[in-house]
């Protein structure tokens, strides 16, 4: 099984390095993979099936719906609207979108999902402790 949580940490560090040096398109692109990996961590932890390859395997909206999360607000919604694997073929972000707002949205999404992962892990841990006795 893939260690999506570990991959999310690596991509987050890479995205930060790119953003800190002004390479916003690459940072936004990698931030999407952070969100994707965290969503897959959550889904895997909760035994929810999800696509692991192809377009649907990278579809943040589809993964978000699979997790049955509420619609993301604000910057997080902006990120979800603009992120896709097709960014890898772009030379620049759309002129009408502030890359810092996109990155803020990516961080909000990743953080929100990370909180749900911790909550789910905590519930799993307490459930298994009850059975141990």
State the main characteristics.
disordered C terminus; 0% strand; mainly alpha; 70% helix; 133 residues
Largest sheet: none
Helix percent band: 55-70%
Let me know the number of strands. Answer: 0
Q: What are the secondary-structure elements, in order, as H or E?
A: HHHHHH
Are there runs of 5+ residues with pLDDT below 50, and where?
A: 128-133
Write up what this structure looks like:
This protein has 6 helices and no strands. The longest helix is centred in the C-terminal third of the chain and has 34 residues, at 99-132. It has helices at 4-20, 24-45, 54-57, 60-66, 74-82, 99-132. The radius of gyration is 16 Å and the shape is globular. The chain is 70% helix and 0% strand. By secondary structure, the protein is mainly α. The model is unreliable at 128-133 (pLDDT under 50). Helix 1 runs antiparallel to helix 2 (24-45), helix 2 packs parallel to helix 4 and helix 5 crosses helix 6 (99-132).
Task: Please give the structural blueprint.
Elements: H1 4-20, H2 24-45, H3 54-57, H4 60-66, H5 74-82, H6 99-132
Helix pairs in contact: 1-2, 2-4, 2-6, 5-6
Describe, in short, the structure shown:
This protein is mainly alpha-helical and 133 residues long. The protein has 6 helices and no strands.
């Amino acid at each position: 099984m893939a260690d999506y949580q570990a991959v999310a940490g690596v991509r987050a560090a890479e995205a930060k390095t790119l953003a800190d040096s002004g390479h916003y398109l690459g940072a936004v692109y990698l931030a999407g993979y952070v969100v994707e990996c965290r969503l897959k961590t959550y889904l895997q932890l909760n035994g929810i099936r999800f696509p692991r390859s192809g377009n649907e395997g990278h579809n943040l909206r589809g993964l978000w719906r699979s997790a049955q999360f509420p619609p993301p607000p604000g910057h997080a919604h902006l990120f979800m609207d603009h992120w896709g694997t097709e960014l890898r073929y772009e030379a620049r972000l759309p002129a009408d979108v502030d890359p810092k707002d996109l990155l803020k949205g990516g961080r909000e999404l990743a953080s929100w999902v990370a909180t749900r992962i911790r909550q789910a892990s905590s519930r799993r841990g307490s459930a298994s402790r009850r059975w141990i006795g």
